[in-house]
Amino acid sequence: MAEVKQEKTNQELLAELGVEVKQEKKAARTPKEERIIAGFEEIQRFVEEHGHAPEHGENKDIFERLYATRLDQIRKQEECRTLVEEIDHQGLLAGSLQVAEPPAEYSTDEELLAELGVEAPKEGDITYLKHVKSQADKKAAEEIANRTPCEDFDKFKPLFDKVQSDLKHGLVEAKLLKDQKDRDYMAKIEQGDWFIVNGQKAYVAEFSKERNHGFDKNDYRLRVIYDNRTESDLLLRSLQKALYEDEAGRRIVSLSAGPLFDDAIEDDDLASGIIYVLRSKSDHQVVSRNRDVIHKIGVTGGKVEKRIANAKLDPTFLMSEVEVVATYKLSNINRTKLENLLHKFFVGSQLDIEVPDRFGNMVKPKEWFLVPLFVIDEVVERIKDGSITDFKYDYKLAKLVEVR
User: Is the pLDDT of residue 2 over 50?
Assistant: First the structure.
């Protein structure tokens, strides 16, 4: 049997030709350089996903703001620029060399660098890294940052739309976790709770029935959905930590759970107040044609009779006498917030009418609504029991409908 001749390797052939083969050694990177490169690559991935360089702004995601700050620092510092120049295929370094003003939530460059885990320059050390976080802190930070696309976000979108609408119309409030009077609005976190953390609305969609048996045996696992169509599978304590570390962190609560009907009386609260509903005696064509369903809704801390004494001289009352058709006496209310709540709830049925005042100037009153009295009755009851956030007024059907 013929002997099989082995093929020579490229190195052996080059050696026979007298060519010395030198193995190029890749220069080792310092931890600092690796961190800079890794940070720049994160920015590049952001650009690939979103089609633009990260930008500053309070309306931007926290990660985009941090990437924008990081890019500013890399552009500014020559050592950093040199390090990432070869991999800058997107032309990110070609942007302005001037560092943008720090975002509003940071007062100094040092605070910005600290948020990135970079200490302020020391004796020429441009990006000296500090590693001072405990393992628990690192775990919590990783869980908050480790978000994935929410594949079934469409199922949650109506909930986010409703919360946004409720915030806009004053049906719910975003409470600082601890307000100026040192009242704590964190309490315990439960399934179905809403928060604003790092500028994003967050919904606690799922809550594990049993305690976690991983990092912390006394903790629970959550599924949290965010308004940017992402979600995270994180521990309860990780979410609590993120909320408390975010100075603007908030819990979204129903007004009925806050100072609207609260035992703690604010400076502008009264021990009692009255919601009044008026009907106009005006002979204006629009009013006379719809008199039974046109009502003025207001809140006062005094007597209603005194409030309407000069109605025929006041454009607020359509320059006409009025009659009181309903009153509701309530305790421990913030009158201003309650009146705003009522007006915003019925805003879609606001009467579009102009009347001349005593001097002939046209005035457009804003507190008159096309709404039947029985609907107002129901709304007041639902404000009192806290269920108002589950409903909206359908002016076409002239009734409350459940928000789904």
Answer: no
Please write the tens of the pLDDT for every residue from 103-153. Answer: 444 444 455 545 444 444 444 444 433 434 444 444 445 555 578 899 999
* Predicted pLDDT of residue 213: 47
Cross-strand bridge partners of residue 330 = 273
Q: What is the pLDDT of residues 386-398, one digit of tens each?
A: 778 788 888 888 8
The pLDDT value recorded for residue 121 is 45
Question: Which of 124-128, 165-169, 339-343, 349-353 holds the top average pLDDT?
Answer: 349-353
Residue 145 CA to residue 115 CA, distance in Å, equals 13
Any residues with CB less than 8 A from the CB of 400 and at least 6 apart, and which? Answer: 375, 378, 379, 382, 391, 392, 393, 394
User: What average pLDDT score do residues 87-99 get?
Assistant: 71
Q: Can you give the three-state secondary structure of the chain, one letter per residue?
A: CCCCCCCCCHHHHHHHCCCCCCCCCCCCCCHHHHHHHHHHHHHHHHHHHHCCCCCCCCCCCHHHHHHHHHHHHHHHCHHHHHHHHHHCCCCHHHCCCCCCCCCCCCCCHHHHHHHCCECCCECCECCCECCCCCHHHHHHHHHHHCCEECCCHHHHHHHHHHHHHHHHCCCEEEEECECCCCCECCCCCCCCCEEEECCEEEEEEEECCCCCCCCCCCCCEEEEEECCCEEEEEEHHHHHHHHHHCCCCEEEEEHHHCCCECCCCCCCCEEEEEEEEEEECCCCHHHHHCHHHEEEEEEECCCHHHHCCCHHHCHHHCCCCEEEEEEEEEEEECHHHHHHHHHHHCHHHECCCCEECCCCCEECCCCEEECCHHHHHHHHHHHHHCHHHHEEEECCCCEEEECC
**Global pTM?**
0.41
Closest CA to 36 of 129, 137, 115: 129
